[in-house]
């Protein structure tokens, strides 16, 4: 006669063995999922050159745009990593939750909880936020905020910003623009050729208007339009002439804003830009 207790134990051991085999198979076939759950609660940026900062990107890989930059010592919450060795990328978030992105794992070390809510735990380190319009916002934990156009010129700065903070913001934006150009990153890449075209046109009403589009091949292209005291800037994602048409938001130094549309001419020679602002001003430039 079979012992029911012994049979139950055998059945339990068999069930546990099957469950263990299934779990092992799952971890083997889904290494990314397992790795994403491993690691410390916080990472600290380390190993970056003393005069440089680490690119924080919108996704895991150098092809993703830079959304922020962090110096050595910056502390982030760990949201999970994928890959191994030099191919490891980690999802990060600032302690205050304002910035999140991905960074190369080889520049990260395990860290304890941060001492503050800024990107580095230090109050005077600027935090850069790249807007979809191409504008760059620089924030300090003290409340100082400065806004720059896509080519790095300051649009406005808060009254709480000190001269030293303004200077630090200028340097941070200049470094960001250099490092965020195509092919320039901590992970290597060659230089690319510059593109620069100029054109002339008219503000509706008869005053002359000039424009310029410049940038690097396969990257972002800054637009400047000026005339009769008007200076506006925008950012195109494609080189002039490579797409049939493209629009961008433009912002002007006097506070006006609107839309600019660049259309490839039917003849195939050059492009025409039309701009319309919310204050009723408009015009065109032929490139």
Describe the structure.
- The structure is a single chain.
- The strands form 4 sheets. An 8-stranded antiparallel β-barrel has the order 12-13-14-15-16-17-18-19. The chain has a 5-stranded antiparallel β-sheet with strand order 6-5-4-1-7.
- The chain has 2 domains: 36-179, SH3 type barrels; 194-286, Lipocalin (Beta Barrel), CATH 2.40.128.
- It is built from 3 helices and 19 strands.
- It has helices spanning 4-29, 31-36, 163-179; strands spanning 42-45, 54-57, 66-70, 75-82, 89-93, 100-104, 108-111, 127-130, 136-139, 145-148, 154-157, 194-203, 208-216, 221-227, 230-236, 245-252, 257-264, 271-277, 282-286.
Terminal CA distance: 96 Å
Low-confidence stretches: 21-37, 116-123, 182-192
Please name the CATH topology of the largest domain.
SH3 type barrels
Spatial strand arrangement across the major sheet: 12-13-14-15-16-17-18-19
Give the overall form.
elongated
Helix and strand run: HHEEEEEEEEEEEHEEEEEEEE
What does the largest sheet look like? Answer: 8 strands, antiparallel, barrel
Q: Tell me, what is the CATH class of the largest domain?
A: Mainly Beta
Count of extended strands: 19
Q: Supply Rg.
A: 26 Å
CATH homologous superfamily classification of the largest domain: SH3 Domains
